[in-house]
Write a structure and sequence with these properties.
This protein is mostly helical. The protein has one domain (7-82). Helix content is 58%, strand content 0%. The longest helix is centred in the N-terminal third of the chain and has 22 residues, at 19-40.
């Protein structure tokens, strides 16, 4: 069995902003990683497809508040930028 991807190392080149913001992105990325691993059995963001991130944002966070969804969307955009899928837009309804 392989070790899960280290999200701090994975996002190290993409993280900007204050230390608190960087810690929030890392924490949220690890939560995303755990949820996608549990549902789709993909622990490495390099193996994620857009449908995995979409599932997390729309189904896993369905009962979360609007600000929570917004901040997870920012983290998801960092992850997608890091894996080279910057042309993809993550649509997240604010309701």
């Amino acid at each position: 069995m392989t070790k899960p991807c280290d999200m701090a190392l994975f996002l190290s080149g993409a993280l900007t902003g204050s230390t608190a913001t960087q810690h929030r992105h890392l924490r949220q990325a690890r939560i995303m990683q755990a949820a996608i691993q549990q549902r789709w059995h993909r622990d490495n963001p390099w193996n994620w497809q857009l449908k995995h991130v979409h599932w997390f944002l729309h189904h896993h966070l369905k009962d979360s508040s609007v600000p929570t969804k917004y901040y997870y969307r920012l983290t998801a955009s960092l992850i997608l930028r890091r894996i080279g899928k910057t042309s993809l837009y993550i649509r997240c309804e604010v309701s």
